[in-house]
Amino acid sequence: MQLTVSTWNINSVRLRLDQVGRFLKERRPDILCLQETKCPNDKLPLKDLQAFGYPFVVHMGQKGYNGVAILSRYPFAETSVMEMCGRQDARHITVTLSREAKAAAGLTIHNFYVPAGGDIPDPDLNEKFRHKLDFMAEMRSWGSKSKPTAGPAILVGDLNVAPLEHDVWSHKQLLDVVSHTPVETEMLEELRQEADWIDAMRVLRPEPEKIYSWWSYRSPDWAAADKGRRLDHIWLSKGLKDTLRAIDVTRDTRGWERPSDHAPVTVVLEL
C-alpha cells in the first residue's frame, strides 16, 4: 500500500482552517501533522477537521502558542506526549497506527515543534536560544534511551533548524543567524544520526539542490527574492528507507491568501 504523510506549521489552525481544507482536498495525504495550532484542546475545530475526511485526530494545544496535532484516515492504537524541558508547552505528540492501517499497522509517527530560539544566538544572553538548545539536547537523549527507530517510525515537524549548506538561500550570510548557526546545525545532525534517522528529503533530493519550506513574512516579494530556509523535516527509521518513493514541498501554499510562512512537506512511502 502507498502511505502519504504531510507536515505543516500552520501558524494558527483556526485562522487558516480553510487552507487546511484546501490542502487536504488537493493533496489528499493519509496523515497530516500540524504544528503551531495556537489553540487549547477545547478550541480545536475538531468537527471541521474530521469533515475534511480525517476522522481520527489527536491534539496537544495551549492558548495562543505552540500546539501540535495529527489528522489521520486510519485509527490509532496508541497516542502519547512528552513534556520537553519540564514544560507543558505542547511541542510533541506521538501516534502508533492500529491494525486497520493494514501494511502501515504499527508505524509510529512523532510530531515535534522545536522552539524557534529568538534572535540572538547566544544562550547566555537569550533564554529562548538556551531553551532551543536544551530542547534538542533532550531530543538527543530521548533518541539514545528510547530507541525510537528500533521499529518502523517517522519523525516530522518544524524543527526550526536548516542543517545543511543548501537548506538556506545563503550559507555564508546566515551562519550567525538563529536556525543556521553551527551549534544548531551540528546538534540537529548529531541527534538525527545517533538515533539512526534518515533525512528523507536529502535521500531523494541531495545537495547541492536548494530546498526551502519557510519564507519570512518580512520579505514583501518572497517568491522573487526566494530567501528561504528548510526548517520543516521528515525523517524515517532506516528500515523504511527502501519504501521511500517521493517527497516534495507544496510551495504554492505560501502564496495563498493570509498564508502561513511555512509550506507543507509531503512524503510518499510504498509499504
CATH class: Alpha Beta
Average residue-wise pLDDT: 98
β-strand number: 14
| CATH H-level superfamily | Endonuclease/exonuclease/phosphatase
- How many angstroms separate the termini? 5 Å
Main sheet overview: 6 strands, mixed
CATH architecture: 4-Layer Sandwich
CATH fold-level topology: Deoxyribonuclease I, Chain A
* Helical coverage, percent range: 10-25%
What percentage of the residues does DSSP assign to strands (E)?
A: 25-35%
Question: Residue ranges: pLDDT <50 for 5 or more in a row?
Answer: none
What general outline do the C-alpha atoms trace? globular
Family: Belongs to the DNA repair enzymes AP/ExoA family.
GO molecular function: DNA binding; double-stranded DNA 3'-5' DNA exonuclease activity; endonuclease activity; metal ion binding
InterPro entries: AP_endonuc_1, AP_endonuclease_F1_BS, Endo/exonu/phosph_ase_sf, Endo/exonuclease/phosphatase, ExoIII-like
EC number: 3.1.11.2
Keywords:
six-stranded mixed β-sheet; Deoxyribonuclease I, Chain A; about 270 residues; alpha+beta
